[in-house]
Amino acid sequence: MSEAFEEATQRVYDALTGGKPDQVRKIIAAREEVLERYGPLFTPENAREIEEHEFTSFLHFRNNKHWSGLDRSIPHLTSDMEELREGLSVLVDLSKPLAKRTTAAVRKVKGMGKATATAILQVAHPEECGVWNSTSEHGLKALGLWPRFERGAAFGERYDKINARLRRLAEAVETDLWTLDALWGLIDEETQPSPNLQIDGKDQEAGDPAPEDTEAAARFGLEKYLQEFLRDNWATTELAQEWALHAEEGEPEAGFEYPVSVGYIDLLARHREEDRWLVIELKRGESTDRTVG
Fold first, then answer.
1. Closest among 244, 233, 230 to 274, alpha carbons compared
2. Name one GO molecular function term (predicted).
3. N or C: which end of the chain has fewer CB within 10 A?
């Protein structure tokens, strides 16, 4: 075992055994309820017959009790239910290699990104499959455990390596992959925490105190709205003429809250013709009215 992995394991263990916000405790406690409710839906046989309302209910935080934002992709995911059913049946089929079936699923189903695909896999196969989203990616990078990939590696090939790291880490601290995924927002207190952690159903940065005055709360909300507005309406901005929001296979919104070892980039875009990158950072919490820099 390498020294880096030992240090990473200790930090995860400290998060596991230390104090936790109420919301994290609720996520951990909800594991059996969610697995019992949704696990039977995500078998190869049942996925082929899944109803739209059954599938979309899982994507809402109030039901999956763990992941927020999955419901944003509902219009794309359900635009062709037959394609969705076929893609889901392939995704959760343990008789096929993990790398091949995950790649096939995200290529087949419109809107099937890494966060949605791997959340489904965690519920379908909780002992075998961990979750890859911007929060876990940031955590692995902050711990120095992010794997190297071959140039041009397919989505499933990348996930296969990431999942191996997640499983090894969970085994080392003797916890399950659901609980490990709930800990990522707590593990690295020295760097910017996940912007995706929900507190009682509301977006809030992990470890940050709730805004105590109306002005601060309104400013934070405005900046968060601006970030999401730019993401959702990128094609209508002047920047879109030369820059495209970064996207990868299985990660259509990879450029939104892009995780790096020291935190998150609010928006990351790539020049359409040249080998150049554009980093957009919102000036959260500053007294000036200049919010983009």
1. 244
2. nucleic acid binding
3. N
Distances (CA, A) of 31 to 36, 40, 96, 176, 186: 9, 14, 26, 10, 18
Phi, psi of 244 (to 5 degrees): -115, 135
The answer to whether residues 192 and 262 touch, using CB atoms and an 8 Å cutoff, is yes
Are the beta carbons of 260 and 138 closer than 8 angstroms? Answer: yes
The span from the CA of 206 to the CA of 174, in Å, is: 24
Q: Which residue(s) pair with 248 in the sheet?
A: 251
Nearest to 164 by CA among 147, 186, 183: 147
pLDDT digits (tens, 9 = 90+) for 16-66: 999 999 999 999 999 999 999 999 999 999 999 999 999 999 999 999 999
Structure tokens at 215: 């002005």
Name the residue with tokens 């390498």: 2
* 3-class state of residue 273 by DSSP: coil
Both structure tokens of 133: 């989203």
Residue type, 12: V
Task: For the chain of 293 residues, list the mean pLDDT of each consecutive stretch of 10.
Answer: 87 95 96 98 98 98 96 95 98 97 96 96 98 93 92 94 98 98 80 42 39 50 69 81 77 71 78 87 55 45
Q: Which residues pair with 270 in a beta bridge?
A: 244, 277
Q: What residue type is assigned to position 3 of the chain? A: E
Residue with tokens 């419109």: 110
- Please give the model's pTM, rounded to 2 decimal places: 0.74
